[in-house]
Design goal:
320 residues, Phage tail proteins - horseshoe like beta roll fold, 3-stranded mixed beta sheet, 4 helices, 23 strands, YqbQ/XkdQ domain-containing protein, YqbQ/XkdQ
Length: 320
C-alpha cells in the first residue's frame, strides 16, 4: 500500500500506513478515506488541511483527494480523513439551469466549482429546466440523474475516478463474471438479504398537471390493483412540469409504475476485497442458498485494508 502526501509547496511524502478505509456511495455523498499513518516523529512530516493525498496498491489507483481532518494520538499514530472532489459539490447556492441533458448540466456545475473533469458519457435526454434556491449542488446533480432515469430507464452515476470527475452509465461499470463474481465460493464470507416495500415501492402513481391553457388541473393515475390488495395502497404523488404534453405525462406515468411497483431486494455482503469494486459498479452475485444468480448494483461500498488484509462491505440491490 502506497500513501503519498503532497503539501502543495513542492514536498511529497511517501507515508508508511497501517490501515486504510475507503468509502464510496452511489448517490449524494463524496468518497472518503480514513487512514492511519505510522510516524515516529509526526512533527517532521506534518499533515495539513488541504494537502493532496493519493493512495495506490500495486497497479490499482484507489483514491485521490484532499485532507480535511488530521490528528495525532499518544502512540504517535497520525489519523487522516480525506474526501474526493465530490466534497466540493456539497455547497448550497441558487441554481437556474435551462432545459439540458444531465451531462451538460453536471459539467457546468462542476466547471463552476473549478473541479477537474474526466470522461462524461452523453445522457441524451433533455431534462426540463430547473430553478432551485438554497439547494446543495450535489442534490441538483442527483435531480438531473433521477429525471434521466425515470424518463429513459438509463441509470448514470457520477464519481471521482482518481482525481477526475466521471459520469457513466452503470451498464458500462459492469464487472464481467469471468473477471470475478461474489458468492459462497468466491470472496464472500457473510451476507444479509432483505426484501422490502418500505421505501421505494409504490403500486399507485398519481401525477397532476396544471394546464396553463385551460386553467385546470389534470390528474393522471396508474395503479396495480393486485399489488394494492396484497400490500395496501402505496402512492407516489408528483406534480409535473406545466410544459409537458399529455403523451409525455402518460409515458412518464408508465415508466414510474414499472420502476416502483415491485419489491426492492437488498443485500449486504462481507467479502474479501477487490479494488475494482466501488459504488456504481454492477457485480454478479451467486448465492445458491438464496437462489440468487444475478447482477446487483453497488449502492454503498466500504474497503478496509489493515496490515495487508483487504476486505470490503457492499450494500447492493437489484436493478431491472
Amino acid at each position: 500500500m502506497e500513501v503519498m502526501i503532497d503539501n502543495r509547496n513542492g514536498t511529497v511524502w511517501d507515508m508508511p500506513v497501517s490501515s486504510v478505509e475507503w468509502k464510496t456511495s452511489r448517490i449524494g455523498k463524496a468518497g472518503s478515506l480514513d487512514a492511519k499513518l505510522i510516524l515516529k516523529d509526526p512533527l517532521k512530516h506534518p499533515v495539513n488541511s488541504g494537502d493532496v493525498i493519493a493512495v495506490k496498491d500495486g497497479s490499482s489507483k484507489i483514491f485521490y483527494g484532499y485532507v480535511f481532518e488530521s490528528g495525532i494520538k499518544h502512540t504517535s499514530d497520525v489519523t487522516i480523513k480525506a474526501f474526493d472532489q465530490l466534497k466540493y459539490l456539497m455547497y448550497n447556492d441558487t441554481f437556474v439551469i435551462p432545459s439540458s441533458t444531465a451531462t451538460v448540466a453536471i459539467k457546468k456545475i462542476a466547471t463552476d466549482a473549478k473541479l477537474k473533469i474526466g470522461t462524461f458519457e452523453n445522457t441524451s435526454y433533455k431534462v426540463p429546466g430547473i430553478v432551485e434556491d438554497d439547494k446543495k449542488a450535489l442534490d441538483v446533480v442527483s435531480k438531473f440523474l433521477d429525471s434521466t432515469l425515470i424518463a429513459t430507464n438509463r441509470n448514470y452515476v457520477l464519481f471521482d475516478q482518481y482525481g477526475s470527475l466521471t459520469l457513466k452509465n452503470i451498464n458500462n461499470m459492469k464487472i464481467a463474471a469471468d473477471d470475478f463474481y461474489i458468492g459462497e465460493n468466491s470472496l464472500l464470507f457473510d451476507f444479509d438479504y432483505k426484501k422490502t416495500i418500505d421505501s421505494e415501492t409504490f403500486n399507485r402513481i398519481k401525477l397532476v398537471h396544471d394546464n396553463k391553457n385551460s386553467g385546470k388541473r389534470e390528474v393522471y393515475i396508474a395503479q396495480d390493483s393486485a399489488n394494492i390488495a396484497k400490500w395496501g395502497r402505496l402512492q407516489l404523488f408528483k406534480k409535473v412540469d406545466e410544459n409537458m404534453k399529455s403523451s409525455q405525462i402518460k409515458d412518464l406515468l408508465d415508466r414510474l409504475i414499472k420502476f416502483h411497483n415491485r419489491e426492492m431486494k437488498t443485500l449486504t455482503l462481507n467479502c474479501l476485497g477487490n479494488w475494482k469494486v466501488r459504488a456504481g459498479s454492477f457485480v454478479l452475485v451467486y448465492i445458491e442458498k438464496l437462489g440468487i444468480k444475478e447482477y446487483f448494483l453497488v449502492d454503498e461500498c466500504t474497503h478496509k485494508w489493515n496490515q495487508g488484509i483487504h476486505t470490503m462491505t457492499l450494500e447492493v440491490k437489484v436493478i431491472k
